[in-house]
Design brief:
two-stranded parallel ribbon, 222 residues, 6 strands, 4-stranded parallel sheet, Rossmann fold, alpha/beta, globular
Length: 222
């Protein structure tokens, strides 16, 4: 949109292809494939320096966009909400969105993040680290790790059926990777009375619908 030259560092080889990568190519992104071991080192200074040696000067965006600027941007989400609420919920991948919105809340409000990956307890430390690095404070948040459906980008029939029923009832599409798991978890928590009666909840739909193309067979199966 703005004419930036972009490079995507992708775990895998050039045989890897999906709808997101195809869209990135169409937008002019240059894809750079690395093996799994190299990808594990993606946050290390040596790995980033190797990228600089190969591609020259660039602005580095970490996986998921989880950096201090992300928190500043996500704080703006809260300021744009023009209805009173007690709790705001979001899906969690890196935790940056949860950290950002939590830091912008009033003392009586709370942010709840629904992790979309398995074994996501480590995100609590990541969220605290992002807050420290951003010089922001927030203790009014919690992380829910019970609705990952087997791991990142893993889905099953229960989640697919929920997505269909949700769209039929509310005319709102959900994406299989993030928002479907968050709304599923939220509805479960409401049904099991895990929120006080009368609680006003804002559920943040973070988009990502383009990712559904990668689940076409499962989402369209009867």
């Amino acid at each position: 949109m703005f004419g930036f030259n972009t490079i995507g560092v992708i775990r895998g080889d050039e045989a890897v292809d999906n709808s997101n990568l195809a869209f990135a190519r169409q937008c002019g992104m240059r894809l750079h494939f690395v093996d799994r071991q190299s990808y594990r080192n993606r946050h290390q200074a040596e790995f980033i320096e190797q990228l600089h040696q190969q591609f020259g000067d660039f602005y580095y965006l970490p996986e998921g966009g989880g950096n201090t600027l992300a928190l500043q941007g996500c704080r703006e989400i809260v300021t744009d909400i023009d209805v009173p609420f007690d709790i705001i919920t979001t899906a969690c991948g890196t935790g940056a969105t949860l950290a950002g919105i939590a830091s912008a809340l009033q003392p009586a409000q709370q942010a709840v993040g629904y992790a979309v990956l398995k074994g996501a307890d480590f995100l609590r430390e990541d969220i605290e680290r992002l807050l420290r690095q951003s010089q922001l404070k927030a203790d009014n948040w919690r992380l829910v790790t019970d609705y990952h459906f087997g791991g990142y980008a893993r889905i099953d029939d229960a989640l697919v059926n929920f997505m269909r029923e949700f769209e039929q009832q509310f005319n709102i599409r959900l994406d299989a990777v993030y928002t479907a798991k968050m709304f599923y978890g939220l509805f479960q928590d409401i049904q099991h009375n895990r929120f006080k009666p009368g609680t006003r909840i804002v559920a943040l739909h973070t988009g990502g619908l383009q990712g559904n193309a990668g689940f076409a067979d499962q989402l369209h199966a009867q």
